[in-house]
Specification:
InterPro entries: G-protein_gamma-like_dom, GGL_sf, Ste18_fungal. It is a single chain. The protein is mainly alpha-helical and 73 residues long. The radius of gyration is 26 Å and the shape is elongated.
Length: 73
């Protein structure tokens, strides 16, 4: 029982040490990185406030219109 408790404490101690060694950055820097990443990436149609509305024919998420024919699969 005591050995199990000791092993768990040692594992917790190792995880906490790894946490201390992890690189940390301020929130302002992380926010700026995120903003610059989203500006460089291609347009995201799911964020119309940033990129504007999407034309229906260019929208990959719009439901496809059928021509009235039956489709057999």
């Amino acid at each position: 029982m005591a050995e199990l408790k000791l092993r768990r404490l040692q594992e917790l101690n190792a995880r906490l040490k790894e946490d201390l060694e992890r690189r940390r950055i301020p929130v302002s820097e992380a926010s700026n990185d995120l903003i610059s990443f989203t500006e460089k990436e291609p347009k995201d149609y799911m964020v119309p406030s940033k990129w504007g509305t999407v034309d229906k024919r260019d929208d990959p998420y719009a439901p496809q219109q059928s021509n009235g024919c039956c489709v057999v699969m």
